Amino acid sequence: MRPEVYVVLVAALPVVELRGAIPLGVALGLPPGEAFLLALLGNLLVAPLALTLLPWAVELATRVPLLERLWAVLEARVRLRGEERVQRLGALGLLLFVAVPLPGSGAWTGSVLAVVLGLRRRYALPAISLGVLGAGLLVLLLTGGAVAGLNYLR
Fold first, then answer.
1. Of 52, 47, 46, 106, which Cα lies nearest the Cα of 81?
2. Is 70 exceeded by the pLDDT of residue 148?
3. Cα three-residue angle 64-66-70, rounded to 5 degrees
4. What percent of the chain has pLDDT over 70?
5. Closest Cα to residue 128, out of 101, 99, 87, 149?
6. Are 44 and 129 in contact (CB under 8 A)?
7. Where would you find the membrane-spanning parts of this chain (predicted)?
8. How far apart are CA 96 and CA 81, in angstroms?
9. 49-89: pLDDT as tens digits
């Protein structure tokens, strides 16, 4: 498979998202800007899909005992991570939550948080998208600095 496909697919994965996809793309030989755009594309595909399917999945999970327990654990974890900020700041809080480039604070978790807290999709989707853009820019800067440092050592 081409490196571009790997970057898009890794960016769409939960937990890894673009935080891992941008450095992967650079490590596979892509220019940092191209790795950023491909990772951004892959990660931006997550939010509309998750915001559409999660309410349906939650409804299904509440009907199946095993899934209900799994959902309760996930919901508690997500609430612990970002509920206070999002309740206080609304969509801006969601944007800031997603923009922090740490594992567990990306588009997937932001989408779950939006569904759990009942944020309207028309507010959640732009907030998550702008948060992904912000996180991507931060990771790009960090990756670019790492690449420049490695080139300096050569």
1. 106
2. no
3. 110
4. 94
5. 99
6. yes
7. 36-58, 89-117, 123-153
8. 12
9. 999 998 998 888 888 888 888 888 888 877 777 777 777 88
pTM confidence score:
0.84
Higher-pLDDT residue of 16, 84: 16
In order of 31, 94, 112, 118, the CA distances from 76 in angstroms are 39, 17, 11, 15
Q: How many CA atoms lie within 13 A of 61 on its CB side?
A: 15
Q: Is the distance from CB of 7 to CB of 127 less than 8 angstroms? A: no
- The Cα–Cα gap between 52 and 12 comes to 16
AA letter at 152:
Y
Task: Report the alpha-carbon distance of residue 128 to residue 18 in Å, rounded.
Answer: 13
CA–CA distance, 128 with 132 (Å, rounded to integer)? 6
